[in-house]
Amino acid sequence: MENRFKYTNDNKRYHTLTYYYKEKFNEKVCKVSLNANFTCPNIDGTKGYGGCIYCTKLGSGEFGGNPKESLISQFEKGKKIMQRKWPNAKFIAYFQANTNTYAPLEKLKECFEPFIERNDCIGLSIATRSDSITDECLDYLEDISKRTYLIIELGLQTIHEKTSKLINRCSTLENFDNMVKKLKERNINVVVHIINGLPYETEEMMIETVKHLNELNIDGIKIHMLAILKDTPLEKYYYKNKFKVLTKDEYISIVIKQLEYLNPKIVIHRLTEDPIKEDLIEPKWLTKKIDILNNLDKIMSKRDICQGDKIKEK
Q: Which pTM was predicted?
């Protein structure tokens, strides 16, 4: 069946990151994950203790670099690995682990500035929380955005307060919405993380989270499936309460419906979780990432579904 989705150069029926990078930079772009050894206000007691219940001891960025090594060393190692497959690629320095604006301004500058002038680094992607960007930090981020390509990645996970309290987010939707507005007023790219399969959330609730994001003028989204990992508070909660875990087919069905309600201009940075197999308790099917994505593509093609079909593009 002919693909009628306009933001694509392959068989995908959603706005892929590969397509976006090709249109913007006209070359292959890879993200190198870095660990700057930041902490989190939800860990150190400022907002809460222990972090969100799904976080490991390494925090939300468990796949980042080794914090015992310098950031430059982490970047060079990650870069060399990716160059084996893409020798001519350009790179984005991805500050992934924990909350990467939760520090004094001078530390932020020490971390970010070395990557801004590198010829092989075309931009920065900074993962953080909406409650951890001060006005001073916001001014600095705006300055960075004028000197290089900048993405701010914000963890929302869900718009539903009851779920947010259960997973120990220690943050409010109002705070999140206000920060997205402030970032967009300064023309800073915003990518939002959400999680499907959070305890007791229904399909309707997960779709409502996506509908809400349509109203915020965000630039990109990462859709994750909840991974129950070893040595996390979520592991204990799961064994005690045995809440329902989505099947692979249920997850794919929900993601497709979310895509139908998502503005087609919003870039899809991720459509599933990618956990370490040895750490994963449930769902076991999460280790089959390619299978998940291939099945999603087949269903969307067979049913002639495209991102944004259920809304009018703004």
A: 0.94
